[in-house]
Design a protein that fits this description.
alpha+beta
Amino acid sequence: MNLTDPPINDNPKFILLYLWKIIDLPNLSLNNLLFKISYDLFLFPPEKAIEFINLCLKNKLLIETDKNDLTLSNSLQRELEDWQQGRRNKIKKNINSLKKSNQLKTDIEKGKAPNFSKHLKFLVEKETLNRAVRVTNEAFDIKELDFDKGIIKATVSGSKEDPYIIELDVNNKNLKHDCHDFEARRSKNKQFCKHLTKFFLLLRERHKTSTEKFIKSLSEDLENWSFTS
């Protein structure tokens, strides 16, 4: 493990933007910036922090205001604002997705999505459904999606370092997933874990008709399917 300070000359622009994302202030004094870098974030010792600030001033990444405070250059400020807007959009998207998942969960529980709910409920316990809606859409990376061929491949980030796999093959009637809950419990009873449940909620949100046909073919012929890891 390398515990040395990050080299200030490698990418001062990147380091400065990182700092300002945390600071989230339009400007601050030299002493306050020094304190933030050295004693709040422990990024550099004081002498190196001063060297870093002077380098940013020299390269016009930082500019002095009329009140002798320090602020980002105009170009860096635009980059920061773009990043902040991107974060707001992502949060808004996640909130909307969570609302849709919660609404679909309610519809499933009340039988208001009959072409989907009756088949999913056959594969999912109520508590698993409650846990599934808390998995974010961003956790999934769809690698292959071909409803005509009956092939779906994806990964989902979870508690381990490497992502879990999700693979479904209609022709060979095989569902493959490798999270611990699925391996240890769900696969033996041909039940979905939270990842598979959320994955089908996500697919239905994007491909309603095809997903409903897929889940129907799975649930109605479940005894001939293999659940493996």
